Amino acid sequence: MKRNFISGFSKDLDDMIDLKVSLRYSESTYLDRAHDFDRFCVWKYPDETTLTEPIVLNWLKTHRSNQGNIIHAMVTFARSFGRYQCAVGKEAFVISEKFTTGRSIFVPYLFTDGELENLFQEIDCLTPKRDPLASMVLSTYFRMTYTCGLRPGEGRNIRRTEVDLNSGELRIVDSKRHRSRTVVMSDDMTALARSYAAMRDAARPDSEYFFPTQNGGPYTAAWMQGKFKKAFAASKPDVPKDLLPSVRVYDLRHRFATAILNRWLDEERDLSSRLSYLQAYMGHKQLEATAYYIHLLPENLVKSAGIDWESIGRILPRAELWCE
Prior knowledge:
Helix content is 51%, strand content 3%.
């Protein structure tokens, strides 16, 4: 039976559903997800015929709902399809059944270099009404979040006394699980922070926050998230709004971590021996959370890098991707 699939996965999708029906599963259990996945692959991966981890993660990221049951259904479908392709002899990715066992679902969107450049260009063009300092706030805050690998709330709530504009040090105090750490900004980021701070001091000299609103308090997560999504949409004018991936400010932190790991791979460093440095910088309590970022690297890069998977594999299964 043909079901009008049109992507490179069309035959395998048809054949998998035929198999499920022959085993007395309901066709409707798979059909809606299969069509959604098929449309996504036509748009994003038109030449692919074998399921990979980036395909699965990016498909999950397109869903705009935070309802865990919907994401769980998508993961279940992707897992079934990956197992089917493996059964017919393809080296397909099979997503872990533990992927949706956390309290909330967080599927990162990994920006390419070009996407990141376009995103920051659009961020710099944001001009919120009735807040003359906000444009500079956004340009500085989002760059600080990315270049320092911060959690979104760490940058929003950081105080003036916790930013040393001479040394470039940020003191992240009492963050997640009440942990504190020191993060050092790059020279370029420090220079931008100084320029911003001079403008802030003239406009809002009395606020204790590094990024104060007009009333002196910190910006809300919802406000920052709204501006981030607006800039992302503007950076992709050719993509229909209903096909835009759902992005979060937190994705900048994921991009930071994978960029560091990419650089270490380029330098042929041993990742397993260097993960603890990244763990300390990012403020992870457990090494597992840092190690999970290896799963987000391009599959072809990871396979050719000579990673010690025996030692890494003892860490990765326990990692949580969705925690802020």
